[in-house]
Amino acid sequence: MSANPPKPPAAAPPPAPAGPPKDTFTVVFDGTPIEVPKHLNLIEAAKLAGIDIPHFCFHPRLSVVGQCRMCLVEIEGIPKIQAACTTPLKDGLSVKTTTDKVKSGRAATMEFLLINHPLDCPICDQAGECTLQDNSFGYGNQLSQFDETKRQYPGFDRTLLGPHVIADMTRCIQCTRCIRFCHEIAGTSELTFLDRGGRTLVWTHDGKPLANDWSGCAADVCPVGALTTREFRFRKRVWYLNKTRSVCPGCNVGCNTSIESKEEIVYRFLPRLNPAVNDYWLCDHGRFLSESLNARDVHKATIRAGSSVQDVHVPAAIEKIAQEIRKTVETTGPSGLFFLGSAHLSNEENFLLRKIADHLACPNRDVVVDKSRTRKVKNPKEWVSGDEAGANYRGAKEMGLEPGRGGYGLEAVLSGKASPECILVADAGFAAAADDAEKVALLRRARFLGTAARTANALTRAADVVLPAASLAEKEGTFTNVQDRVQKFDRAFLPRPPIRAHWELLLMLAVAIGWGDRNWTPADVLEQIAAEVEGYGGIRAGDGELEGGALLKKGDFAWAGQP
Amino acid sequence: MEPVLTRRIGKENSRTIDGYVADGGYAAWKKVLSEGWTPERLTDEVKKSGLRGRGGAGFPTGVKWGFIPKDTKGKPIYLLCNADESEPGTFKDRLLMEQDPHQVIEGVILSAYAIKCKTAYIYIRGEFYLGARVLEKAIEEAYAKGYLGENILGSGYALDLTVHRGAGAYICGEETGLIESLEGKRGQPRIKPPFPAVSGVFNAPTIVNNVETLACVPHIVNRGAEWFAKIGRNEKNTGPKLYCISGHVNRPGVYEAAMGLQLKELIFGDAYARGMKGGRKVKAVIPGGASANMLTAAEIEDCPLDFDGVAAKGSMLGSAAIIVMNEDTCIVDAARNLSKFFSHESCGQCTPCREGTPWLFKVLDRIEEGEGRVEDIDLLARICGQMANGMTICVFSDAAIAPPLSSVSKFRDEYLHHVEKKTCLVGKRALVTA
Questions:
Q1: How many CB atoms within 10 Å of residue A102?
Q2: For testing the chain B interface, which of A93, A111, A153 should be mutated: the one with the most B CBs within 10 Å?
Q3: CB of A198 within 8 Å of any CB in chain B?
Q4: Which domains, from first to last, does chain B contain?
Q5: Cβ(A402)–Cβ(A367) under 8 Å?
Q6: What is the pTM of this model?
Q7: Based on CB atoms within 10 Å of each CB, which residue in A345, A467, B19, B230 is the most buried?
Q8: What SS3 state is found at B321?
Q9: Given an 8 Å threshold on Cβ–Cβ distance, is A81 in contact with B393?
Q10: Which ipTM value was assigned to this complex?
């Protein structure tokens, strides 16, 4: 859950569109009429009017249960106070959100929610992004006359419910979001209410573990600290975390994520709303890759001389690669070169590699990807599924990393049909093959083997030159997902020198062999992609939508000035 | 008034179909078929009779039936007989089901016909094991004689009736809680709208009627709506009514009388409870089950026991469960006991009820045990005020606040005595305070 502090009502609601279309209702919020789409819940409609209706159990993608009784409002014509979430929208509905009755009703619900809550915010991981804290601050009375013993849940506190999620029922406010998530989105129904009345608790049914592929989302939807993830628990206070818009590296679905980091350490991934891809969700596989972004073995550029490996400056290592390339072109011509891109690298990086190959007139280029088990995520329209272990295989291929006319690919190299003199592997972690000693030995038959890496593997141990490369969190770029959607990820923090992003290393190499401009940024490269790569014509770096991570599908949009 | 609903209670063979038919049973059903009554005519007849739901809310039955949409979009219509009689102090439906099951079944059949329903259920509370067995046996008999099943008595009309036993939850007597439970889910009331008549059990139009309500229908058919409407205090409170009286009276039990019987007559009349046990004075009366506000001894003067009569006294007839407490009763203890019930039975979905009902109990418990403070009395009233009038999905919490709220306002002196003297006004719970 992202922090959701109560916002003061906006001064003026958005102006109603002229000539209201048929699919809207006119709803009056505190005397101001606005047009809202018919399908919205009243809570969402109020948001359009700039009015925050506090709530716990309502979630835009889960069924409406009306249980928490926080979203109380007055509806003109109905004497009793009403839950906003269960009030159907209709034309002319007049909603009052600031009356004394509403205020005292919400304060009453807050008081009831807190009487048995442990108020252990100082040791609770949810603190800082807790809806209970926010709503208490915004709508509660701050004090209570409750002077009885608080409810305890012996045996149902601080317990792992599955591989990732830890439950603490003393903090639970029985909103059933997690139950509904497991039932309605994951479709696995592990969680249920046990017992009733004040003894009601959420637990797994029949002791089966909460082990669906999206179990972390159950902790996301939990508005309080009742469900937290084992991996993030006690790692960092959330208010210290910086949020960076990113894309999950886990597979080719390309779930939109928020990288949450502090002082060059990634603490967690959270799903970032994109209704066209992952909606509010993120699978556990992707979510818990966050930790892997902190791994680093390669801190410096290295050059192998015989059996000894020397640390060198990155420019020197780049120059060494450029020398080897020139030497190969002089002795065997461009056909002695082989360039391997990566499904883990951005479109910009793969494009730069292709341009280097183009500049050298070398048709020998390729990109491969490992197959993984099918991973999927549900958005309002469909399940999006992918089965590739890299996030950008599709983009890498579209950037032109396939054998050109008369060229060969990785398979030919590994089978011995082709024997390149000089191999450049842009990403040492391109696939499982890179840590397969036999396959690396086949690559090693080349006179020169260069690569860029973050973590060590069989390939980095065998290579002649290893460049220190940045992680996903340390660079920006775009991925193209399984839907052919181009999605931008931002840089959370800069890599520590001399580590550089792959795109920068590739650009340095391009300049060293006589092409490109050292001052280009990924945005400049993306402009070139837009100009040169088929289907990418409409994509602009720096465009608000792309920046915002609300994403573009090639061909289904048009910018101003676009034919 | 001559007994109507209870006319066969205590008779030999009161449970068998032969006995029922011999006493004129199933005549109403045969009348409807032989005279070619349309469902609409039957509904109109019930509307004209002024029959109001006997489960507690007192909603006009015929009007409720009329809420079924004309076009059900191909969905079947269901009739559910609410036999989850759980309101503390209520035991009238139990009597009807255990003693005269065919009267209930005939009522179900007629009502099902009126709403064009082909599948009906009797949802009976789990504790009524005998009632469930008696009903099942009676239903078997009715099938065998052709009153249920395909082509009933050659009319072409078909109806299946099934007894479904609950698992013992008060909230499953709330009609949408009952529907959820019948569907095999956790018994939690649903958000309304949609109302059951539009979307009830299995998302199909559904009518939920109380046992006693349905049992009235054969008599309305047999003797006419006018006859029924003439019984009772006025045209808005008609028909015979079963009253359950319990507590400190000489002869507790179920009594049938015309709607609008005076409360004092029920307590003191020779035909009814025959006065207070040991000649003690009345201190308080709960006129409509645990959910109803308590009445003081003064308030029971001129209190006709019908929907509007009791409402005029600031309480409700509810399920007509009259609980009489004598002067030796500790009101705080009584409120504590009732609060414990509600705290135990809250389904737990809405915050104010889930958290409020145990809180009320804990405060009342503290006061009763001599650990209360003066401010606790106003606290009780404040908690109650935060639980009602739209704060929750169903009216359970509105019911749960009745005992504490009414007792705090009407018997404040007893509460004050408890918190100030740390003893009970009636001396039941004298605590040594040194």
A1: 21
A2: A111
A3: yes
A4: 17-230 (3.40.50.11540), 235-326 (3.10.20.600), 331-421 (1.20.1440.230)
A5: yes
A6: 0.92
A7: A345
A8: strand
A9: no
A10: 0.94
